[in-house]
Design goal:
8 strands; 4-stranded mixed β-sheet; 4 helices; Deoxyribonuclease I, Chain A; globular; alpha/beta
Length: 188
């Protein structure tokens, strides 16, 4: 099973939708989590179906920011647990072996002053310790200073708070594939 999490930043543009559709056709993920769609629910549902994902949960953008979509193929058995403007939490059942696990798409607060509330939400979602749990998304924070290039350095206390919530929830970083920095996409 393949999962894809992508901060699409404005999915409403036909060019962006077309590129994402082509990319999804090549990668063939079973579950996708899209962040910062900047779309109302009705528009996101149309885009999601156009992308080939008839099943999903869409959380509308607030004004011109935010917006989430967690979508899955028809072949995937999913139960939606909860959702908000910061997360979509699902239970996935693997038909091949009956194994169940959780997937939470998470969008961390971009504003530093709202991060404590986002971390509290993540801690609240850690409510079934016996079920394997994968959290994907954009936390809007880094673990280590080496993960950032340019601009002002991140405060150590922000990274320490992130490390603390990961430890509290027994989560660990499993790595990242493709371009390391988001701004590299324009330089491929």
């Amino acid at each position: 099973m393949k999962l894809l999490s992508w901060n699409v930043r404005g999915l409403g543009l036909s060019r962006t939708t077309r590129r994402l559709k082509n990319f999804l056709r090549d990668v063939k993920p079973t579950v996708i989590f899209l962040i910062e769609t900047k779309l109302p629910n009705t528009r996101m549902e149309k885009v999601r179906k156009l992308l080939g994902f008839p099943n999903g949960v869409d959380v509308a953008a607030v004004g011109r920011s935010g917006g989430l979509s967690m979508a899955w193929r028809s072949s995937c058995r999913v139960a939606v647990r909860s959702y908000s403007c910061r997360h979509i939490d699902i239970m996935v059942e693997d038909d091949s072996n009956g194994f169940s696990w959780r997937c939470t798409g998470f969008y961390g607060a971009p504003e530093v002053q709202n991060r404590a509330a986002a971390w509290d939400l993540l801690r609240q979602l850690d409510d079934i310790p016996q079920v394997p749990w994968l959290v994907i998304g954009d936390f809007n924070v880094i673990l280590f200073a080496s993960e950032k290039v340019g601009g002002l350095p991140r405060n150590q206390w922000q990274m320490d708070n992130f490390i603390s919530v990961l430890n509290d929830c027994s989560l660990e970083d499993i790595g990242y594939e493709w371009s390391w920095f988001t701004w590299e996409w324009g330089r491929l």
